[in-house]
Amino acid sequence: MNFKLNLITASLLMATAPAWAADFAVGNANTENLNQEKYQCKRCTSTQGYSGNVNVSAGYIDSDDVHAANAFGTDQDGVVTSLSGDIEYQDEHGYQARVQAHQLGFENSTANISVGQKGLFNVDADYALITTYQSGDAQSNLYYDDGMMTPDVPYVFELSQQREKVGIGADFKQDFYQAYVRFDSEDKTGYKSSSLVSPGPINFGQRVDSTTDSFTAGAALTGDNWLTELSYFGSQYKNNTDNLSLPTEYDVYAATPDNQAHQVSLSGQYQLDRTVMSGRFIVGRMIQDDDLIQVAGNPIQNWDGEVDTTDANFRITSMLNNRLRLGGSYDYSNRENNSSVFEFQQYNFDSVSGTFKENVATDIERSTFKVNASYRIASGYRLQAGYDRKDIERTYSEREQTNEDSLWAKLSIRAIDNFTIDLKAGHSNRGGSEYQATELTSSEENSLMRKYYLADRERNEVELRVSHTPLDWLSIDLTGRYAKDDYDDTVIGLTESEDYSYDINLNMQLTKQFSAYGFAGQQWINSAQAGSQSYSSPDWYAYIEDKFINLGAGVSYGGLMEDKLTLGADYLFSNSSSDTYVTADGTSPYGDYYSYNHSASLYANYALSDDMALKLTYSYERYYDTDDAQMTPDQVPGMVTLGELNHNYNAHQIMLNFSYVL
Questions:
Q1: What's the pTM?
Q2: DSSP helix/strand/coil, 9
Q3: Is the residue at 299 inside a domain?
Q4: Alpha carbon distance 34, 330 (integer Å)
Q5: Helix (H, G, I), strand (E, B) or coil at 391
Q6: Is residue 14 within 8 Å of residue 216, measured between CB atoms?
Q7: Signal: is it a keyword of this entry (predicted)?
Q8: How far, in Å, CA of 113 to CA of 86, rounded?
Q9: Is the pLDDT of residue 565 over 80?
Q10: pLDDT digit string (tens) for 484-517?
Q11: Whole-angstrom Cα distance, residue 352 to residue 341?
Q12: How far apart are the first and last CA of the chain?
C-alpha cells in the first residue's frame, strides 16, 4: 500500500496564521442577543476512564453507475461493511488518548489517533482515503503501457482519482511558548481526461500517479498582551509517470514536471488597551527544474524555473468608545518569476518560420488597502461602512495595471423582537492603464477584445439577511442577493453579467418528540458577450442563462415504543441547467447542459439499552445529466473522444448500524 501525507492539515496551519488579525477574546464577544438559558457547559466536568462510541455497519448497495459512489462513499456493489467510532481515554494526571474513525472499509474514509497530556504535549497521526468518480464507462481508442500509446480497438475504463493520505504531527506547550512539527504524504492515482493534437484532436484517459510530501514546523511565544510565531512550510511534488509517445512519434505529451515549494512566515499580534494590531510576513520560493523534451534545434536540457514570492499584511482594530470601532488593513503580494529566459525558434504549424522569440517570465504584484468603521447608532442598531482599494500590476500583459475601488455599507438591526436584520450594499469600479494588444498576442487576438478580468467594470450589489422566530417552535432564515456587472467599454468579450439568488430555511420543533426542517434556494446567472468571426467589429452575440435550485426537507419523530424508537426521513432535490443562445443571422440555441438529482433516506433508530442501539437506513439516489458537448468516439471525423459520459441511473443503499456507547 502506498501512503500519502495529509496536505489538508498543513494547508490549514498556513491558512490559519493570519487569524490573529481578528480579536476573538471572550471579553469581546457580543452576547447582547444570546439566550443563555438554552446553553450549558458540557465539558465542565472531567471524565476519567473511557468514553465514546463504536459503530459497526453492514449493508447492501445496488447501483449500475460508479458515479453513485460519490454519494454512498464506496463503489462496491452488493454487500458492504464499514467501521466508525470515537473513543477517548483520560486519567487523573491529564494524560489522554483519542481514536476517531469514519467509514473505514469504504473508498471515502478517515481515521485519526492522538495521545498526549492535556495542556502540555500531543502527538497525532491520521489517515484519509478520498476518491472521486467521474465515469465508469469512458471509451478510448488509445491503449498505452509504459508511456507508449498504441491505437487499438475501443476499450472501456474508469475515470476516477483516488488520494491516499497519511500524516503525523506533534505539538508541545510550556508556559509562554509552544512548538509544533508535522509531516504529510499523499499518493494520487487513477485516470483523468486529457487531449492532444496529432494531427487531429485526440481525447484519452491519462494515467495519474504522483506523490506529494509536505513538512511544517513552527514555534510561538505568548505574553500578556502579545504573541508571535515563526513557521516553515515545504512541499515536494513527484510525478511517477513519464512523457507519452505514439508509435510514429515520441514524447508527444509532456508529463507534469516535478517541483517543490518553500515558505517561511513570521506573524504576531499586539494589544494596547482597546487597540489590537496584527501582521504577518512571508517569503517563499517555488522551484521546477525537471528535464525538458528534447527537439531539434533546442539545446536546453532543463527549464531552471524559479519563482520567488513575498506576502505581507498588517491589520489594526481600535474601539475608540463604546459606540465607535475603527479598523484598517494592508495586504501586499509579489510574485517574481526568476526563471531562465531563452530564445526559441518559432514554429508555424509543422514548419519553421525562421524567427526567434524569447519565453516570457511574467511577474504580478498586488496591493490591497481597506478601512472600515462600525458605529452603534442606538441599542440594537449598528451601522458599518468601508472602503477597499486593490491595485494589481502585471508584466507582459495586455493591461499592465488595474485598480479597483469599492465602497460598502451594512445596517444591522437587533431591536425588533424576534427579528435580526442585516442589509448590505456595495459599489465597485475597476479601471487601469491603457488596454492594448501586446507583441505576444497581437497576431492572435482582436484588438477590440477585452478579457473580463482586465476590462473596465462597474459592479453594484445588495444583500438582505433576515432571521425571524415568530413562535417558540418555529424559526425562519431568509437571504436574498443581487449583483450586476457592467463592462461598458468592452466591444468584444463579456459585456454584462447578472447574478441573483435567495435562500430560505425553516426549523420546527413541533413537539418534544417531533421536529422538522425545510430549505429552498435558487440562483440565476445571466451573462452576455459579443464576438467577431471576421476579426473586426462584432458580428455575433451570445446570451447565457445558468439556473440552479436546491430543495430539501426532513422530519424526525421520537418517543415511540417507550422512548426507544425514533423514525426519520430526509429528502434533497438539486437541479442545474445552462442554456446558450447565439445571435448572428438569426437566434438559435447553442446546445444546453442539464442535470438533476433526487436523494432520499429513511431511517429507524432503536435503543436496545442505555449503551446499545440499532439504526436501519435506506438511501436512494436518482441522478441524470445531459451535456450537448458529449459525443461518441467517432461522431466527428478526425476527432477521437472518450464517448458520451452522461449519467442516468437509480441507486439504492440499505445499511444496518450497531452502535455501542462506552
A1: 0.85
A2: helix
A3: no
A4: 33
A5: strand
A6: yes
A7: yes
A8: 10
A9: yes
A10: 999 999 999 999 999 999 999 999 999 999 999 9
A11: 20
A12: 32
